[in-house]
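sorry to bug you again but im stuck and you know this stuff better than me. what follows is a protein written twice so to speak, once as letters and once as structure tokens for the fold. mainly i need to know what kind of three dimensional shape the backbone takes. anything you notice is useful, everything is just below:
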Amino acid sequence: MDIDLPFIWAGIIAFAVLVYVVLDGFDLGVGMLFAVEPEEENRSLMMNSVAPVWDGNETWLVLGGGGLFAVFPLAYATVLPALYVPIIAMLLALVFRGVAFEYRWRTRRWKAVWDMAFFGGSLVAALMQGIALGALVQGIEVEGRAYAGGWWDWLTPFSVLTGAAVAIGYALLGATWLVMKTEGGMHDRMRARAKLLGIATLALIGLVSLWTPFQEPLYFERWFAWPTAIFSFAVPALVAALAWALFAGLAGGRDRAPFLASLGLFGLCFAGIGISFYPFIVPPYLTIAETAAPESSLWFTLVGFLVLMPLILAYTAYAYYVFRGKLNPDEGYH
């Protein structure tokens, strides 16, 4: 039986990226909501809600990026030059954000600076991730198996829209996470903010979805040709069901349902992008098979992945299990 290793690895990397988006998305969202919470005690509570898990969440970003470099080197060498600016900006933002976790607890004079670093790092990282996604969706100019576009090709109205959509969506994840983790006044404020962010997220999903098929003829055909058109008709129904679960959960006083519904919206959007792209990894020029490393390299890295992945999953699950439930304001990172 033939095993399609490039396809398997494409699925592994897609899984790693999705896990990163849904896990690191909510803690970036918490960082963005930092700016609208004026009380120091509540800001500390917000940071404590993600402090035990934020660095573990970013493991999945390393796995996705490292996996792309190891098993799809041509795709890596093509995509990186096209997205140098947003990727470097994202990494620098994550650095400032990570340092803020440590420094803001150990200073009074500069606490406002590190609060701004936490907020600004979260916002810039979210925007740059969305802009990079939009630039990839709209297509990267390739000639002779190398990037042939310009320095600023990534910056377009469509990529800015996707950047805004990802940032607002992350803020929704952050708000619903805090609904699940907090009590009292903050819980009520985040529930109200989640309703507004939910409306904005759904509106931006609609705009991006309407615009995407016109970025490439491939997408238009994939969305409206049989049998993949089934997905195009199913998506609005699934989005409506998740939107109902989100707002019903928020209105009904449930804590977990809004967060799970928000995660579902991201998963659904991710699935739509995957269906639009396949079998391309750098649309519309390079396919998964064309950019894959030699079979021996794919086997070697797959063995390493099969060893490491259970450990990563076990660590992640254990961390969330240990720090489950509502936060105690008297305990925390400090």
